[in-house]
Write a structure and sequence with these properties.
The chain is mostly helical. The chain has 6 helices and 6 strands, in the order H-H-H-H-H-E-E-E-E-E-E-H.
Length: 243
């Protein structure tokens, strides 16, 4: 199986870099008022946007994460083709035998569905972006998934600045990446750990209540509904209080 690794630069290191740039910019403009306490936030992770990011819908760490997912997806899906034959599971014991009298399906339909869904997701977003930019509909030479991923990745800088649905795009790409990675390595599958205790307010104040899923090894958990991001340890304590 191909090994895929992301950049070694962490989001915290990027945040520290932008903080230093903001401080340098403030020193370069003596006599002006300090920045307001309330900053615009990233539509994906809800972090405060630094001054150099305020024309964007998303922060640079989120942009980098989207680009990483798009760069990795074609190779991950290619690895997934190795699981199309029934029984070709990385987590199944070699001695397991089939006891059912029914003949096996010619291919693993759940794996095929995942490959198809990822391809359709990337194609639909690329078509949306072409419409937004008044371009002709995309065409593919021979590899719709790889070519769509490459085209989307190339235009991510435009999307984080100009596309109001970039958070929805990031969520769908992230979910596709997690689904494929989880099929290849079950140990990385997101696990349901409880319900979001964050306080939200519409007509009245109440807890969010959306299902939370934790990816093994992650230090944070983000609610897919209210977008609250929790430190894993703080969330553990909050869930214990609710229980």
């Amino acid at each position: 199986m191909t090994r895929h690794t992301a950049s070694t630069i962490t989001d915290d290191e990027l945040d520290a870099l932008y903080a230093r740039l903001d401080a340098r910019e403030a020193h370069a403009r003596p006599g002006q008022h300090s920045e307001p306490a309330q900053r615009p936030t990233c539509s994906i992770c809800t972090r405060d946007l630094w001054s150099a990011e305020r024309h964007r819908y998303a922060c640079r760490p989120c942009e980098r994460r989207i680009r990483d997912h798009l760069a990795q997806l074609p190779a991950l899906v290619q690895d997934l083709h190795g699981l199309l034959m029934p029984g070709a599971r990385t987590d199944a014991p070699a001695y397991r035998t089939r006891t059912c009298a029914e003949p096996p399906a010619p291919i693993n339909l759940s794996v095929l569905d995942t490959i198809t869904a990822v391809t359709v997701t990337l194609d639909s977003w690329l078509r949306d972006w072409h419409e937004q930019l008044a371009w002709d509909a995309p065409t593919y030479r021979k590899d719709p998934l790889g070519e769509a991923a490459s085209a989307l990745r190339l235009n991510v800088p435009w999307a984080v600045e100009r596309h109001p649905a970039v958070a929805e795009f990031a969520t769908e790409i992230g979910e596709a990446h997690r689904t494929v990675a989880g099929l290849l390595d079950p140990a990385t599958r997101a696990r349901r750990i409880g319900y979001c205790p964050a306080s939200v307010e519409d007509d009245e104040r109440h807890s969010c209540g959306a299902a939370l899923r934790y990816v093994p090894g992650a230090t944070t958990v983000t609610c897919s509904w209210c977008r609250t991001t929790w430190d894993a340890l703080d969330l553990s304590a909050a869930l214990a209080e609710v229980a």
